[in-house]
Amino acid sequence: MEKNIPYKIYLEENEMPKQWYNVRADMKNKPAPLLNPGTLQPMTAEELAGVFCDELIAQELDNDTPYIAIPEEILGFYKMYRPSPLVRAYCLEEKLQTPAKIYYKFEGNNTSGSHKLNSAIAQAYYAKKQGLKGVTTETGAGQWGTALSMACAYLGLDCRVYMVKVSYEQKPFRREVMRTYGATVTPSPSDTTEVGRKILAEHPGTTGSLGCAISEAVEAEQKLDGYKYVLGSVLNQVLLHQTVIGLETKAALDKYGIKPDVIIGCAGGGSNLGGLVSPFIGEMLRGENKYQIIAVEPASCPSFTRGKFAYDFCDTGKVCPLAKMYTLGSNFIPSANHAGGLRYHGMSPILSQLYHDGYMEARSVEQTAVFEAATQFARVEGILPAPESSHAIRVAIDEALKCKETGEEKTIVFGLTGTGYFDMVAYEKYNNGEMGDYIPTDEELAKSLAELPVVE
Amino acid sequence: MEKNIPYKIYLEENEMPKQWYNVRADMKNKPAPLLNPGTLQPMTAEELAGVFCDELIAQELDNDTPYIAIPEEILGFYKMYRPSPLVRAYCLEEKLQTPAKIYYKFEGNNTSGSHKLNSAIAQAYYAKKQGLKGVTTETGAGQWGTALSMACAYLGLDCRVYMVKVSYEQKPFRREVMRTYGATVTPSPSDTTEVGRKILAEHPGTTGSLGCAISEAVEAEQKLDGYKYVLGSVLNQVLLHQTVIGLETKAALDKYGIKPDVIIGCAGGGSNLGGLVSPFIGEMLRGENKYQIIAVEPASCPSFTRGKFAYDFCDTGKVCPLAKMYTLGSNFIPSANHAGGLRYHGMSPILSQLYHDGYMEARSVEQTAVFEAATQFARVEGILPAPESSHAIRVAIDEALKCKETGEEKTIVFGLTGTGYFDMVAYEKYNNGEMGDYIPTDEELAKSLAELPVVE
């Protein structure tokens, strides 16, 4: 029946997307605007220009244009590591003895080890086009920092990365990849910024957080001439660039007449999930089709499933604009025992609005169950997945096992965002039986949510 | 002119090789047979059966059959990570401002991070088919051990890896990947074998060598019921399996009417080089075509360029058969400061004979020049290469720069065997300016070569 569907679908070059898809154009309820942290009024393009590049601001604020052309230079860079394969998980299906058909879109076949490169090259390109010397950013687990370093090396831009201290120390090899690509990597909080010094004074011995590293990167940008700040997730512009994932996925499925029933992605700040599901949700918004969309988040950082849909600060230092999103509070820090990424306290405003409007559901999964799925997947599908990606694997397996019970032949598509080659400390913990589950108590969450800013 | 040649050539599933190519069938001067270390007589199939699987022995001894069918099950596994792309290095060409056209066959898009999986799955498959419980092996840098662990996990075989102690300690993450795939990893030399205990007694504090780990893995196999020993390079069977690299490369080039002038591969034991060049050398042997073939080896372990073509032991413990090959002497150990693999004292008997007969040339390159090429390549082509693969990059760049001087538009193809994600300790040394070059003196080589066994 499906004789002609290859194990791995690679699009031909001429089938690759030439435009990004802007899901906001099809949303009736647009995502709420970013607010100025001082005035609590919507940020204007002029205000945003203090931090971001001009063309990226235009993309950030554009709620109307459905398709935005990908510049030739970015298409050229995409050809370096794209198209990514859409893989039929035949071996996993057989292992599970499920009637479900499982596909995964694999974004890990590049040195950044994840999908982050899709937006890194776009942001670096617009910075270069604007005549800038360099960019500043933060990185947690390290994928984003690596991706940006690669993009900057390619374009000849300086790249300064503030890396969450706990990752900097636990993942020296990630740091070294960035340095090989010519980036400067500073552990955060550091004494190189005012906000860093303040945080260090208040919390001596802290191992840092993403929200804190964002504050430092933004401050650093503002003190450097010819630099702008760039961010790897959460923002509308990032989701826009990442739609190359979903557009390729859809093109590959359409090419072989495959209609997915369930689409699953892991969710931290939302860049991968948003990129994967946007074209499918677009069809739902336009009333053309119906899919079950599942966001998967760690039980240790459950912004969708236990957070509040409200305006909040995007960073710990409260220097960035406020965003309306599902949030756990900008002071929330997941347990240090939580491995991998997906540690951000908030969520993409676009995805938050779509979730709020019922276009997707969300599940939280526990860490040991995630690594169990990761190991099972690695052994039959060959790829050792990133802990982040493995959240999606967990729920894909759960859904496939449900099909086994019901006999349904559902088609499940999930996003395999990257590889776990720099996460072996976490795998070692799991292999040694030393990994636990760390779920915040209701009291903890209530405490950090009580500190949300009052906006309305 | 070349408008229709994509950036990356992926073969369609139906274009992938269904047979391995046995270059020995076309060699007038066959590689010399393995000798029994006791009697110094050619090893019979019966004698080899004490160590190797039956079908692999047949492949090892087959000097006549030009094409050997790849079993369906192995083809199925190959589909998991193959075809590998043949990439046009447009960005590198532009960076070098060379009129040369550079292509590379990239074997790193799988969790083992290298081409080693091509033979690992074949050897594990034949072991499984013979009803064995498991296999033993050694690994140096770790690629082979990882590949074999993956193949064994897939087939449900037990896998016991003796890992050279210095690698075991410097690359804990490699070890952890193997453990994630269910393998048992023992640092070598160990006290789990007689030969290990003997070496430890004679050289207390030794950090091990590949030759020593081979001896331990062979001894372990002989003491375990239902186990055989498998090896990741040097042997004829391994080169046979690895021809899938060269056959895919040739099919991709032929598809677009590209004729290479120069083909370059790094050479340690010869598995990648032999796999890449065999189909091309086959055409030379049959008088159909002419190519310039270049083997690249580290100046710190220069078996082709400074070794002797003679019978030698394959392992330090002298329990394995003797092979006629270019060798530095089985007691030769490259400087501990040499990074990455390509540390074996000998070379594939097939490649040794072909080199001896003038079908390829060899160059040795120094470590810092290799990392310079690796970094240059990473920054423009996106892939952070393995130190081993970077030997080929170095010479590909050198050849492209020659073309720049002469104006020749040569087509250069090189093998990019893998990624360097587990080699960041070496990159860190290079990034910090702490890397040196370690070339054995004539006296050192004369000493280890003086210990060659007397065979004729």
Overall geometry of chain A comes to: globular
How much is the radius of gyration of chain A in Å? 20 Å
Largest sheet entry of chain A: 7 strands, mixed
> So what's the oligomer here?
homodimer
Task: Give me the secondary-structure topology.
2 copies of one chain form a homodimer.
Chain A: E1 8-9, E2 19-21, H1 45-48, H2 54-61, E3 67-69, H3 72-81, E4 86-88, H4 90-96, E5 101-106, H5 117-129, E6 134-139, H6 143-155, E7 158-164, H7 165-170, H8 172-180, E8 184-188, H9 194-202, H10 210-223, E9 227-229, H11 236-255, E10 262-266, H12 271-285, E11 292-298, H13 303-306, E12 308-313, E13 322-327, H14 349-356, E14 361-365, H15 367-381, H16 387-406, E15 411-416, H17 424-431, H18 442-449
Parallel strand pairs in A: 5-15, 6-7, 6-9, 7-8, 10-11, 10-15, 11-14
Antiparallel strand pairs in A: 1-4, 2-3, 4-5, 12-13
Q: What does this protein structure show overall?
A:
Two copies of one chain form a homodimer. Chain A is of the alpha/beta class. The first copy, chain A, is 42% helix and 16% strand. The first copy, chain A, has 18 helices and 15 strands. In chain A, the strands form four sheets. In chain A, strands 1-4-5-15-10-11-14 form a seven-stranded mixed β-sheet, sandwiched between helices. A four-stranded parallel β-sheet of chain A has the order 8-7-6-9, with helices on both faces. In chain A, strand 6, helix 6 and strand 7 form a beta-alpha-beta unit. In chain A, helix 4 crosses helix 15, helix 5 runs parallel beside helix 6 and helix 9 packs antiparallel against helix 10. Chain A is globular and about 60 Å long. The first copy, chain A, starts with 7 loop residues before the first strand and ends in a 7-residue tail after the last helix.
